[in-house]
Amino acid sequence: MNAIGRIEEKVLDGERITTGEALTLLESAPLATLAALASHVRWSRHPEPIVTYVIDRNINYTNACNAFCSFCAFYRPPRHEEVYVLPIETIAAKIRELMAAGGTQILLQGGHHPDLRIDWYEELFRNIKSEFPTLWLHALSPPEIVHIRKGSRLTLAETVRRLRDAGLDSIPGGGAEILVDEVRSRLATNKCTAGEWLEVMEEAHGQGLRSSATMMFGHIETHAQRIEHLDRIRALQDRTGGFTAFICWTYQPGRPGADGEAGPTALGGTETTTADYLRTLTIARIFLDSLDNVQASWVTQGPRVGQVSLAFGVNDMGSTMFEENVVSAAGTSHSMNEAAIVRAIRDAGFTPMRRNQAYQLLGEPLFA
Known about the structure:
Elements: H1 3-12, H2 19-28, H3 31-45, E1 50-54, E2 56-60, H4 88-100, E3 105-109, H5 118-131, E4 136-139, H6 142-152, H7 156-166, E5 170-171, H8 181-187, H9 194-206, E6 210-217, H10 223-240, E7 243-250, H11 274-287, E8 293-295, H12 298-301, H13 303-308, E9 316-319, H14 326-329, H15 338-347, E10 351-355, E11 361-363
Parallel strand pairs: 1-9, 1-10, 2-3, 3-4, 5-6, 6-7, 7-8
Antiparallel strand pairs: 10-11
Helix pairs in contact: 2-10, 2-11, 3-11, 5-7, 6-9, 9-10
């Protein structure tokens, strides 16, 4: 039996694979083999033919950012003439529109605005929760929390506690990119380290907040660095059990960054193929054996690939993306309303179910 066959046996027997074995699968296993193994893991964790999704809205409260990520076409330098900070009235109007459409949560993220301290976020969160007490507030990626902590001169524990007390319900996994500092230092000038990203998540999990885990790949990282990223996620999940889902997506090279530079393509990155996306997705499902849910990234890959990914270990179609600004700023624009998501799930042979951010089932589709 060859090396891939031995790894297959381990996966089918429910054994944990090593980083070296994950790399072997990523680089050498046939895609059909990976699909079968990832599907086996998915069905062992989710024996019912249910694929979930959530009705929510992305709200970017500011586009000002001093992290200066070379791959980001959304941000503007803090003193740029196009910088904005949304007033609470505008955010509230967006939430009302979402809830009228059956939405249950918002994903609230922005940039590293140098003038916003923790009291600004506390006031915003309390105002949101006062008007919309049932709304789930999924907000502030780890880099934003690190930025708030440093600007407010607080400990990480105090920062997380104050945000939680103000109404924060869970933390999105944005800003992870690749959790290897050699890569991160080349992608962004002023963003949190891999260790800081993980520290935020561990502190949040310790305070009872759940979070998602993400990976943006297909730029300047190696295959081994993708596996290193997954290994760091798995190790933290083993300690805390606080990650609800894993989402990976590919770097979108369509437009230059806000500084006019070419971004990662100038550093050797190339546009990732659908096959590479599916290979990496399956490895994540197989390797992250202590994490229940894997989400499709139809926002970057398109609805058809999102649907196909249900045969590659995915059990969640993510969000209706009632509003999306960051990926579309890079030139990628895919949209699916609830009806389209439900149709894609059903056509793939699964049962669609609404969920919340904690992956609790809310019921059958509302408007489909």
